[in-house]
Fold this protein.
Amino acid sequence: MLFKIILVFLLAMILIALVGRALFPGALPKVLRKKTSAPVCGKCGRYLIGRKTCDCGGKAK
Ligand SMILES: [Zn+2]
């Protein structure tokens, strides 16, 4: 029974993380963005090291 609760809790956390990423792309890296000068994608917020365009089709800011 306890194992089931833990499993459901973990699944809920993963779901929240996925939804959060979908709704607020690059919300977490934003904190790190101020410290580095590495270009990030204007669409998804991923770091674009050594390139100007992103896999998602976005461009560096
Ligand atoms: Zn991107």
